[in-house]
Design brief:
homodimer, 388 residues, alpha+beta, L-amino peptidase D-ALA esterase/amidase, Ubiquitin-like (UB roll), globular, EC 2.3.1.1 (chains A, B), arginine biosynthesis (chains A, B)
Chain lengths: 388, 388
């Protein structure tokens, strides 16, 4: 399952002691080849963590052989010392892999961290755990790795897209700060397809653009968002580029929806379809304006189909539309028609977790879907009581 | 007090029955002259209510003699019928004032509404109440008017700036959807200064820009935000333009801070000072990015000085700064220095309602202050349980 479903990959996860809870907190994914082409997309937050800076840098040559991920600390805003910690982690992983007979250098090791910003990682614990992590690597270790990267996630997130003789696998962690600017959260994808390394970044970017980039749980962009894709080529099969993009997108979309379904404290998953927009960019802008409107999100928590709050959000955008042409439906009931009162709001039942909001701009033929969640007591509680 | 402190104004407020609670919900402010110069700034939300469209239109000639305001219904997204309701209200006010001996036409009557979006106003109740409203007008009726425009406000909001022989008065209602794009909420300002009508709009805009425009309670921009300024000239004194701007600004700032202090469900008033910015626009952008960050707002509710969430918000902006030069202080304790760990966070006590956050961008000599509130259980409750 997950990252170890495609051939040529092993993984492991264990407890290094970074989390006070004693839950697993360190994961490793190894690409056994024969190829090592890789790509990554990262947060566009200008305040980005040391591991993001490191991984971006080592990906310049388009290759990675291993990724180490820790929960229990973001290693963000930790200065030059934090960057040195990330560098040391990669060095130690390379040394441990070399000891185990793998030809891996530190610049072939990506690093991802998640947890509290502004705190140094306990490097002594990580150093002690790395040899164990390497010893535990297994071709069915994907589930253990997926578990070890959880923070406030309540379930581990894995996905696989199976094609004829090859596949794409993935794992993700999410929970809060879910408003990716370019990529999102921590995600590792693997494939045994033979990939054209010169195209791999564009293929990954195309997939994340319509999946993770369309999720906006709480409007907050993380300092650590990372999506890495490793290809082993172990299947020996070279799919058409569009087929590879399609499989990567399938896994990204499945993981993105798993992230929304498990977003911190949420009680509704809200699918916002903006249709008949003049451009895709307009549709995205309108969708995100609604997804980020706290009053709308509170209303959904209260099972209130408050379309006035939808319109007041749409009205803040620069999208092409006429206010008196806007239609809004909640769960199939068009309660706002031509910018005014439509069907009775009593016809809308919002008690299920899944809520569908459709906004018709009547301005063209483009569309986009944005996924978000409601704003609940539990969201406030989780983010007021715990430092994450 | 309030709008009736300056000479030449009377006001009244009463219960017309628009609110199920039976609390006062209809207010009238009358300018007795001799002058009737007026100015207004309105929401920049493209979905704007019928009364905003009406008031913007009748202000084209730079004059107003009366303003009628109702709570209990926003008259937004109500189509042509809603606009006709606003028009009828102005006609009825003019007729009632004429009956009482005042020479006022409907285009001299501004209209403001606040309450639930997407519901028609009960015009029968308003029509019945208007003659009583006119009969009740009094030169000390400012407090009754301020009370009648409250929605989820817990206290009425009035302010006065007294100068040598003239003054500026004002009243406001706020509570939620506090993120003005140009103006904010419902605010009526009065002055007995002799004002230059050609300058009045610019003077009002200058005042709102550094007061209401710097408030961002929940990132949600209303469809009904309106600030109206009426000048009677009854003092016979013509202050220097800069003195008039200063007095208007004083009242706007006082009302803006009263709005933040009473924002829905808030338990902290947060003053965000962004200093040493390359431009005022940069300082405002950075301040608002923090004010709109739900994770930061939850942390303050939990008395957690989570500077990592401040930096992650700052990092989403296009402002000029280097991430490794950012300093952040909470209540005077610099817990983030040079983009990394500063003083121990345990030194910060956030139990008082007033919280000060200072962000130093080290990029210039400009600054701005943004006021916001925390994100609490009560905010979610008020906006999930009640349609407003």
């Amino acid at each position: 399952m997950g990252v170890t479903h495609p051939r040529g990959f092993s993984a492991h996860g264990l407890t290094a002691g970074l989390k006070p809870s004693g839950k697993p907190d360190l994961a490793l994914v190894l690409n056994h080849g024969p190829h090592k082409a890789a790509a990554g997309v990262f947060t566009s937050n200008r305040v980005c963590a040391a591991p993001v800076q490191w991984s971006r840098q080592v990906l310049v040559d388009g290759a990675l052989q291993a990724v180490i991920l820790n929960s229990g600390g973001a290693n963000a805003c930790t200065g030059p010392e934090g960057f040195a910690d990330t560098h040391a982690t990669a060095e130690q992983v390379a040394t441990a892999l070399q000891t185990a007979g793998h030809d891996v250098g530190p610049i072939d090791v990506g690093v991802c961290s998640t947890g509290l910003i502004g705190v140094r990682l306990p490097m002594d614990k990580i150093s002690v755990a790395i040899p164990d992590l390497v010893r535990g690597l297994s071709t069915d270790g994907g589930a253990l790795a997926a578990e070890a990267i959880m923070t406030t996630d309540t379930v581990a997130k894995q996905s696989v897209a199976i094609r004829d003789g090859w596949s794409v696998g993935g794992m993700a962690k999410g929970a809060a700060m879910l408003a990716p600017g370019l990529a999102t959260m921590l995600v590792v994808l693997t494939t045994d397809a033979v990939a054209d390394s010169s195209r791999l970044h564009d293929q990954l970017a195309a997939a994340t653009e319509v999946s993770f980039d369309r999720v906006d749980s709480d409007g907050c962009m993380s300092t650590n968002d990372t999506v890495l894709l490793l290809s082993s080529g172990a299947s020996g099969i070279s799919p058409a580029p569009s087929d590879l993009v399609s499989a990567i997108t399938e896994v990204c979309l499945d993981l993105a929806l798993q992230l929304v379904a498990d977003a911190e404290g949420s009680s509704h998953t809200i699918t916002i379809d903006v249709v008949n927009a003049a451009s895709t960019a307009d549709a995205i802008e309108v969708g995100k304006s609604i997804a980020r409107n706290n009053l709308f999100k509170c209303a959904v928590f209260g099972n209130d189909p408050n379309w006035g709050r939808v319109l007041s959000a749409v009205g803040t955008t620069a999208a092409v539309f006429e206010p008196d042409e806007l239609d809004v439906s909640f769960n199939g009931v068009q309660i706002c028609r031509a910018g005014g009162i439509g069907e009775p709001r009593e016809l809308v039942d919002l008690h299920d977790r899944q809520v569908s909001v459709v906004v018709d701009l009547h301005a063209g033929d483009r569309r986009a879907t944005i996924w978000t969640t409601d704003l609940t007591y539990d969201y406030v509680r989780e983010n007021a009581e715990y430092s994450t």
